[in-house]
Structures
1.
Amino acid sequence: QVQLVESGGGLVQTGGSLRLSCAASGRTFSRNAMGWFRQAPGKGREFVAAISWSGGNKWYADSVKGRFTISRDNAKNTVSLQMNSLKPEDTGDYYCAATSRTNRPYYTSMNEYDYWGQGTQVTVSS
């Protein structure tokens, strides 16, 4: 059974930092892209960042570019999201996702991901 488990969420002040981690079990994703999405209260889930299987290709939503960094450790089957200069609008539940697709280096649409974690909550106070 494939599981993605996020950790690292919490409450932080504006301008602060958090590091989210996602541990995969049940299969290896070392040859698959992975990504992070978020869902703010009362809004739909949106793309945040994605990374190719090798880590050589990364893509970010415009709203987080320059502040967030996605990385992965294939030996540990983990993906991380370093979030700096956090803003109140970054508040939401953050979800790790993995895809079985291999035709592109990374993916930015929810429907391109097959596996999802349960989410970790991030709250940025003003």
2.
Amino acid sequence: QVQLVESGGGLVQAGGSLRLSCVASGRTFSTYAMGWFRQAPGKEREFVAVISWSGDTTSYADSLKGRFTISRDNAKNTVYLQMNSLKPEDTAVYYCAADNWRGAIGATSRRPGTYDYWGQGTQVTVSS
């Protein structure tokens, strides 16, 4: 069992930055691939980024490449999402998720149904 707790959301002006954190309970964090998703009101949950269990491989939604960076610190059981040059359309609840998968990051890593555990989400609001 893995419990995930996100933090770091808030209100920021367009062009600003935020860093989200997700702390995982349990001693098996380093065996999980970790993903970030977001969901805006009235929209489906969408993939943001994923990082492999080792941290060696990352993948991003095409529209977010260059602005968002995912990273992890296995010693701290924490995964991060650095978000720069934020836009009003980035406004959403951001969720971290854990996938008990030590294989290669691929297309399935972009699907919410792939993930075994989810956090409660943290709200990010970007004002224009």
